Amino acid sequence: MDDRNEESELGSTQGARREGEVEGESPKRQTVFDVGGLRGAHQPVHVDGQRDLSRPRIESYPNPPAFVGYAQQIGGPAHKLPVSDVFDLSRVSMVLDGMPIVEIHELRQHALEQDHLKVVSFDGEFEQMDKLGRPLAPGDLIVAEPAGTETLACWSWSLNHGSTAFLSGFDDVQWLPLPRSLYAEGYWTESGSDLLKLSRFARDANGVPQESFEALDQLNIPRPSLLPDPELFCIDDLFWYSEQPQWWDFHTEWRLGTGAWAIAGKYLRFQPALVGLADRYLRNAIGLQPHQTLPPFFAVHIRRGELTAIHHDQDFPPEWLTTTTAEHYAHGAWEALREIEAVLGIHLEHIIFTTDEPDPNWRAPLLSYGGHFVDHDAMETGDKFGHCG
To answer: Where is this region: Disordered (predicted)?
Structure first.
């Protein structure tokens, strides 16, 4: 990254300097949360406190939080899955000129964290013994101590839209709504959230705009006792942000290869171990042996259990959910296959269905039409991956 694209970097400050910074000196690094992120050590600033605006501009880097699997989504206990368990972040860092990517679990332990992430390397600072009474040596793996309580002050997209703000991995967070001026003109009540405006705000914000306080007053939400620190930019939700919010379709940038996709998304690759696991599941679904070549296929993800849980407070599930049958999905998949062949000239014979619908009778028509499901009992998914299965 360089100065030429700093406006389109999410919170990046590389190449920028504040008043008081000496030209030629290397800036310190700073971290940024995507749905939470740190810029160095967090130093809470009280509402009646003063900020030191002469501090040098610090280069930013991201701290992605883990993916959160909720019980209603996966049909099992809630858990977290680190981004690096899914995507090869080392590769992303390399292609982005070595920019550090430090995940939240590397900074602090938190609830729902997987056991293999709670293991750290003993630094030898204090003498410790293992369970058998033997002295530990530097480099020995030990269980990390739970993180202490920490209060953060963060920005919220959700509050402006009447939703509860949430930051994965932190229990005590005080929120301020983002200024409505960061939204596309006339779109603040919808999903017209401007990524470029947010990037500039994350880069340059040294205080809280009055409109954020006014928004709290309008929402009848008490003002927080802490303000976001300029060395820490954390935000609850980036899902709705795009460089062209007037399109009203955040998938457009992915289709056109622009926006956040062009900056970082295109460099994401799945972890090799995850690719290998998917290969084994696909062979199970289609019925192939390890030596056979995996043919082209079309995948359909059917969300049902999660959507039913979302509407659990209603007397009955929404009509569209109860009236949408397996036959509807089969027909939609068939139409997609026809379009792929007509537009791309690719002939596909195999359709892989994945779903959280637990009723085998509901899924049966998809099998009768020639669709494939992974046999998770045969693959021992639950035994191998626990809550993931």
So the answer is: 1-57
Domain ranges for the chain: 3-110+147-267, 272-388
Whether residue 226 contacts residue 45, with contact meaning beta carbons closer than 8 Å, is answered with yes
Please list, in sequence order, all residues whose beta carbon lies within 8 angstroms of the beta carbon of residue 341, skipping any fewer than 6 positions away.
Answer: 347, 348
Rounded-to-integer distance, Cα 208 and Cα 356, Å:
43
DSSP state of 170: -
Length of the chain: 389
Query: For residue 72, what pLDDT is reported?
Result: 61
In whole angstroms, give the CA distance from residue 118 to residue 90. Answer: 20
Q: Are strands 119-121 and 141-143 parallel, antiparallel or unpaired?
A: antiparallel
Q: What is the pLDDT of residue 58?
A: 47
Rounded alpha-carbon distances, angstroms, from residue 252 to 198, 237, 247, 269, 280? 19, 19, 8, 21, 32
- SS3 category, 260: helix
pLDDT in tens, 13-49: 232 333 333 333 333 333 344 443 333 333 333 333 3
Q: What is the SS3 assignment for 296?
A: coil
Distance of CA 108 to the CA centre of its chain: 17
The residues near 335 (Cβ < 8 Å, ≥ 6 apart) are none
User: How far is it, in rounded angstroms, from Cα 237 to Cα 42?
Assistant: 20
Sorted by sequence, the CB contacts under 8 Å of residue 278 that are 6+ apart come out as 270
Q: Which of 99, 63, 144 is nearest to 267 (CA)?
A: 99
For residues 269 and 76, give the distance between their C-alpha atoms in angstroms, rounded to a whole number: 27
Q: Are strands 297-302 and 67-69 parallel, antiparallel or unpaired?
A: unpaired
C-alpha to C-alpha distance for 23 and 17, rounded to whole angstroms: 8
Q: Which helix (DSSP H) or strand (DSSP E) does residue 155 occupy?
A: strand 151-156
Report the distance separating Cα 92 and Cα 269, nearest Å. 8
Burial 97-133 (b: 16+ CB within 10 A, else e): eebebbbbbeeebbeebbeebeeeeeeeeeeeeeeee
What are 238-287's pLDDT values in tens digits?
Answer: 877 777 776 656 677 777 888 778 888 889 999 999 999 999 999 999 99
